[in-house]
What we know:
Elements: E1 6-14, E2 30-39, E3 42-50, H1 61-67, H2 71-75, H3 80-89, E4 96-100, H4 104-116, E5 125-128, H5 129-137, H6 145-151, H7 163-185, H8 192-195, H9 198-206
Parallel strand pairs: 1-4, 4-5
Antiparallel strand pairs: 1-2, 2-3
Helix pairs in contact: 6-7
Amino acid sequence: MNSSKLHLFIDFEFTMPENRHTPKxxxxxxxxxxxxxxxxxxxxxxxxxxVRPKAFPVLTDRCRKFLNISQKEVDxxxxxFDLINVLTKFHEENETTIITWGNMDMKVLRRNCDFxxxxxxxxxxxxxxxxxxKRFFGDQNQxxxxxxxxxxxxxxxxxxxxxxxxxxxxxxxxxxxxxDKRYLAKPKPxxxxxxxxxxxxxxxxxx
Length: 207
């Protein structure tokens, strides 16, 4: 981790159709944002807000129950334009790493930007931490966010599927993985066998 660079840990929650068979016309919209800003391994700022959807403003029953979110809460949120202003505020071009758990967050953000005819706000480095975790541990399948942190013997922050809590949990897993990477990268200490040619000693006393 290049601690001098800005790291944005982001989690979005999205709208979802009433059933698992997504209609062709439907696309998910961001309805909650959680953001943790880190630099020099210190948390500079966090941000949380609901976001009002535009294309499909009325939440489905499935969405409200799954996310434990109300229509009133979402209706009180910021606009998508305000969300982009927030994200842009904490973005330093070419000096920012955006970290999410999975690739859906950035995919949905891009789709929403296209819908609103707004330029995508990020030009930094993107890290899908779920793939980093998968490669690091050699897992065959991608692991869910809270299952991953529990595999470390830890618990997630707050409640699952709350954007800011999931952003903090992503940050916590990132720190654990980076710590393990540094540990494995350390050179093994030399042994007495590395410093002394034991074969010469053995031959000497064998005479």
